[in-house]
Amino acid sequence: MSVPKWYQKTISITAPSRGCHLITNEVTNAVRSELSGIKIGMANLFIQHTSASLTINENADPDVRVDLETALNKIVPETWHKDGSFTHTMEGPDDMTGHVKSSLMGPSLNIPISNGRLALGTWQGIYLNEHRNQGGWGGGHTRNIVITLQGTS
Fold this sequence. Notes:
5 helices, Jelly Rolls, YjbQ-like_sf, UPF0047_YjbQ-like, 3-stranded antiparallel β-sheet, alpha+beta, Secondary thiamine-phosphate synthase enzyme, about 35% strand, single chain
């Protein structure tokens, strides 16, 4: 029986804009050599931010990303900042809505590893969902993601 191995790496990804962005290649490229040594295992991805989230969804049609952003804006509209629904407004009109969307979608993913690859389905991809027009205090959209791999060879 082989001893489980653990790997951890933090990557930074800059979302070009608010919305849902496919980042599967960035994630797999960052841990390609570590993944190759794992026959059976688990990958955990954790985003270190409260106004962005991670999810898995369709990777083929870019319209899915646009529609997902549209749906999120209907579920948690920015007008809630203007109508007094929120008291936390110090970082702008998309701040608290970003926090709510992040909580709904979640900060982490668990993906099985099988024979040196993330065991995503044929049409599945990893999304970075940026919920802010500006990534906190008026800065950019750079988000840190901690990737933890565990498995046996």
